[in-house]
Design a protein that fits this description.
Immunoglobulin-like, 12 strands
C-alpha cells in the first residue's frame, strides 16, 4: 500500500511539474496585415495578456525569443507612470502579410545593442545631446545664450555609423572633423 501511495504521489508531482513548465511560457503572434514589410517596429503587448497566460512570470528573469529564427528579441517593460507594468514592448520585423511568432519564457535576457542615447552635457555649456542609430542632435545649453556669437538652437550631427557616438565626440572635443563616424557640419 505504501508503494502505491508513493507512486501516486510521484505521478501527481510529475504532472504538476509538467503543468508548471507548460504554463511557464507564453506564445505571442505579431501579425502584419499590410502590403509593406515592417522592419524593427516596436509593438506593445498588453502585460495583462501576458500574465493571463503566464501568471508566475518574473519580470526580472524572462526573455523573448523568435520561435522561427531562435534569436532573442529586444524588449522593454512599459509602466506609463503607474506602479505596475502596463505593456511589454518588443521590436520585431514582420514581412508583408506575414506573422512573427514569439515565446516569452524564463531566462536571463542577453545584452542588446543600444539604439538610442541621451544625456545632459554640463561639461559643454549645459548642452543636451541625444542620438539614435542614424543621427545625433545637440541642443545648445543655457550657458551659451549670454555669448555674443548667437550660438543657440539645435545641431544635427551626421553619422556614418549605427553605434552611439556623442560621448566620444564630446570627449575628443573634435566633432567638426570626420574621423570615420560622421561629424557636426556646422561650426558655431
Amino acid at each position: 500500500m505504501n508503494r502505491i501511495t508513493c507512486l501516486l504521489l510521484m505521478f501527481c508531482g510529475l504532472s504538476s511539474l509538467v503543468y508548471a513548465q507548460t504554463n511557464a511560457k507564453v506564445t505571442i503572434i505579431v501579425s502584419n496585415p499590410h502590403s509593406t514589410a515592417r522592419s524593427n517596429m516596436v509593438v506593445a503587448i498588453k502585460w495583462s495578456d501576458v500574465t493571463a497566460k503566464y501568471p508566475s512570470i518574473d519580470t526580472s528573469n524572462f526573455k523573448v525569443t523568435d520561435i522561427d529564427t531562435k534569436k532573442e528579441i529586444p524588449f522593454q517593460l512599459e509602466y506609463l507612470g503607474k506602479k505596475a507594468v502596463q505593456n511589454l514592448l518588443v521590436q520585431v520585423s514582420v514581412k508583408a502579410g506575414g506573422a512573427s511568432k514569439l515565446v516569452v519564457a524564463p531566462g536571463k535576457p542577453g545584452n542588446t545593442v543600444r539604439k538610442t542615447y541621451a544625456r545632459f552635457v554640463p561639461e559643454r555649456y549645459d548642452d543636451f545631446a541625444w542620438e539614435n542609430d542614424k543621427v545625433a542632435y545637440r541642443m545648445y545649453g543655457k550657458a551659451l545664450e549670454s555669448r555674443k556669437d548667437n550660438a543657440f538652437g539645435v545641431d544635427v550631427w551626421a553619422k556614418r555609423t549605427s553605434k552611439m557616438v556623442i560621448n566620444d565626440w564630446y570627449k575628443s572635443g573634435d566633432y567638426h572633423a570626420d574621423h570615420g563616424d560622421g561629424l557636426d557640419y556646422y561650426s558655431v
